Structure prediction request, 261 residues.
Amino acid sequence: MASITKEQIDILIELQTIETDRYQLQKRLEAKPAKLKALDEEIESQGSALAGDEQSLTDLKREYRSFEADLKINSERIKKLQERLRSVKTNREYQATLKEIDDLKAKNSAIEDRALEIMDRIDAIEAAVAKKKEDLSLISEEIKQDRAAIEKEMAEEQQRLSELEKKRQDTAGRLDPSLMRTYHRILALGYAVAIAPVVQSVCQGCNMNIPPQMFNELQRFDSLKFCPFCERILYWKPASEDSGISAEAVACEEKAEQGEA
Ligand SMILES: [Zn+2]
Prediction:
């Protein structure tokens, strides 16, 4: 394409800006499901920690009850043996019964020590469970709000995306088909930004200085010019002007490419 109008360049800049916005918006949208999943996983992990503690409590309480049952059995046995002591006939039998009583008492004393330990652990875990339940309910409430905020953002971004898509189609329809082909040919080089402004003779796409003659020609907007270094379509942008493809868009493009690599 030899000749070009400033109007066509402006349409291309508009198209590029819309597509860059769309790209960034899509990236943000694509990241949202992972954010939601991370929130769910946090709840899940807190919930399973709580379930683990509750299981320990159940096990410890069962153990405690079995100790109580053992204590009761042993105490009843001791009582019977003590009654028998009054009716034993021989010294040997008396000593044997006495020893049996002492053994049972020693057993009970060991069981009581162990039961006390378990009671301490039960108390500690019950306190931890209460704290975890409280934390979980606070976190659940926070996460519910976070989820709602993310879902609202997603809906807004989805809406904005379809607006951009409509705008993109309108703008693309106004672009000269051969300029459109050139634009896509440069995008196919792997760039997300195919048209770059030249500010003070520096291509904002690759930061290289373009030849002075090309810089002069660019300011006339009468023919399509390509950066001799990165091949992007160039247009002249006065240093004072804010509109057009921003250096941020190009920087963002590079970051996105590195992120994908
Ligand atoms: Zn360049």
The pocket of zinc ion is lined by residues 196, 203, 205-206, 208, 227, 229-230, 232 (CB under 6 Å). The helical segments are 6-85, 91-174, 177-187, 212-218, 247-260.
